[in-house]
Write a structure and sequence with these properties.
Number of domains of chain A: 2
CATH topology of the largest domain in chain B: Rna Polymerase Sigma Factor, Chain: A
CATH class of the largest domain in chain B: Mainly Alpha
Helix content of chain A: 25-40%
Distance between the termini of chain A: 48 Å
Largest sheet of chain B: none
CATH architecture of the largest domain in chain B: Orthogonal Bundle
Order of helices and strands of chain B: HHHHHHHHH
Strand content of chain B: under 5%
Number of helices of chain A: 7
Helix content of chain B: 55-70%
Shape of chain A: extended
Number of helices of chain B: 9
Shape of chain B: globular
Number of strands of chain A: 8
Structural class of chain A: alpha+beta
Number of strands of chain B: 0
Oligomer: heterodimer
Strand content of chain A: 15-25%
Strand order of the largest sheet of chain A: 5-4-7-8-1-2-3-6
Distance between the termini of chain B: 33 Å
Chain lengths: 303, 185
């Protein structure tokens, strides 16, 4: 299926049937991802197929009501409303069509930096949580590995209980992401999904060797890979790339390699889980990545 | 606003500001959402995650809802379906929301509007009135989240047969229900 609009009157009966089959499968969500996307692009250009699809979609939508209704546990409503309130408090609730065209700058202090307290405007931490600060990572710059005593120095970030994680995440970090990425639907969907599935979150702060930027590491529900949100990362030279490392007791394990020259805002799924992880760090490496860190570490956070 | 007596559409318009509106919509539709999610993912905890995600997506995207394009319930359930499919296919829940969330200036046809008023029992009845092989194909696609290729493989059928069954099933279902709408009208 391509971008050329169809004229149903000029299609052979066989071609029409094949087209209807594709649109029916698409309406049911039964096409493989790539084909579904191709159909989606075609629909943007073809009024005839859009009309058929609207009809099919209306029929498919009826299937949603067939299952016997069931009650979710009461905690779900509480969590939903808490997440909505937290987001509202962080000022990140504007619907996409009400978003400003110029993106506001991140408010300083929402993501704690070394030695800083959360800004007074930030939502308070849950009672009993320690003040959040992130120590610069004593991760080796060009050396193979720092002595354990250094790596093991733990920052004051404590993992949050799953129930509180979403709300705190919103208050501390997602407000910034929300503000800066607002208007980009995909990013917003990603945030929604992330907020929903967040179990714990940690900030990654720039190291003395870094040139700014920051990160938010999000551990999600079981089975979903952790995600690292990167912001304001300076672009590396075209032949260099950012690489993400998860550091446990052994040598750093590569968790993601960004595209050469890619910086700015990135949302990255890590290829490593955080089981036993002590530190997550981002270093500058040759394009294509490196088996072990060789370049300067620019962002790091201890878990 | 009196949330108890407000229409779903009015609640949607109040959403970004009023948490009470979200609360009210949740009270009205959580059981249908959970029913669908549970039927699809088969496990309570995951189904509840899907429900929570779907309502939050509804809340955050309320500004994109257009009165007259379809019911809030239909929209919500399409989000539930989409998110449940993400789970079934092992995808991170990051895929785009259903297309009918997107801007669309087309006017819904009569079928789209009348179909939304059909009762659950009537729809279930029509589904069970389909020939068994068509019902099976549609259930594997819609509720089990299988692609047509996976259905063909699961049933050991040629892909073309599955495609044909899905098309016929939807066409027949529509026919049965349209007759029903006509009969009620």
């Amino acid at each position: 299926m391509n971008g050329t609009p169809h004229d149903p009157a000029r299609l052979s009966p066989q071609a029409l049937e094949a087209l209807e089959e594709t649109l029916a499968a698409h309406a049911l969500g039964a096409l493989p991802e790539a084909e579904a996307q191709a159909v989606g692009r075609h629909l943007a250009t073809c009024a005839a197929c859009r009309a058929v699809t609207a009809d099919l979609t209306a029929t498919v939508a009826l299937l949603a009501t067939v299952p016997e209704p069931a009650a979710p546990s009461a905690a779900i409503k509480e969590r939903l409303l808490a997440a909505a309130r937290a987001e509202q408090a962080s000022g990140g609730t504007a619907a996409p069509d009400r978003a400003p065209t110029r993106l506001p700058q991140a408010e300083p202090g929402l993501v704690p930096t070394p030695g800083s307290e959360p800004a007074s405007g930030a939502a308070p931490l849950p009672p009993g949580e320690p003040g959040a600060t992130v120590a610069p990572l004593p991760f080796p710059g060009r050396a193979r590995r720092a002595p354990r005593s250094q790596v093991a120095r733990r920052a004051a970030w404590s993992p949050w209980a799953a129930g509180a994680a979403a709300a705190v995440l919103v208050a501390l970090g997602m407000g910034i992401w929300n503000a800066q990425l607002r208007g980009e639907l995909r990013a917003q969907q990603q945030e929604t999904a992330l907020i929903q599935s967040a179990r714990q979150a940690w900030a990654l702060a720039p190291t003395p060797e870094g040139r700014g930027g920051r990160g938010l590491l999000v551990e999600r529900a079981a089975g979903a890979p952790p995600v690292l949100l990167l912001q304001d990362l300076p672009r590396p030279p075209a032949d260099r790339t950012y690489q993400v490392w998860v550091i446990r007791d052994g040598p750093p394990a590569s968790a993601a390699v960004l595209q050469p020259g890619a910086g700015g805002q990135q949302v990255i799924e890590l290829q490593q889980d955080l089981e036993g992880a002590r530190t997550v760090a981002v270093s500058v490496e040759p394009a294509g990545g490196s088996p072990s860190p060789t370049g300067p570490v620019v962002l790091a956070g201890n878990l | 606003m009196d949330v108890a007596s407000a229409s779903d559409e009015a609640l949607m318009q109040a959403l970004p500001q009023q948490i009470e509106a979200l609360d009210a919509l949740y009270e009205r539709h959580n059981r249908a959402a959970m029913g669908l999610a549970l039927r699809m993912v088969g496990e309570r905890e995951t189904a509840e995650e899907v429900v929570q995600e779907a309502f939050l997506a509804l809340w955050r995207n309320a500004g994109r809802y257009e009165v007259g394009r379809g019911s809030v319930r239909t929209w919500l359930l399409s989000i539930v379906h989409h998110r449940a499919i993400d789970r079934l296919r092992g995808r991170a829940p990051l895929s785009p929301l259903p297309e009918d969330l997107g801007p669309d200036t087309s006017t819904p046809d009569v079928w789209t509007l009348t179909a939304q008023r059909l009762d659950r029992e009537v729809i279930a009845e029509a589904l069970s009135a389909l020939p068994q092989e068509q019902r099976q194909a549609i259930e594997l696609a819609y509720f089990s989240g299988l692609t047509q290729t996976q259905i063909a493989s699961a049933l050991d059928l040629p892909l073309g047969t599955v495609k044909g069954r899905l098309r016929l099933a939807l066409g027949r279902l529509r026919g049965l229900l349209r007759d029903r709408v006509g009969a009620d009208a």
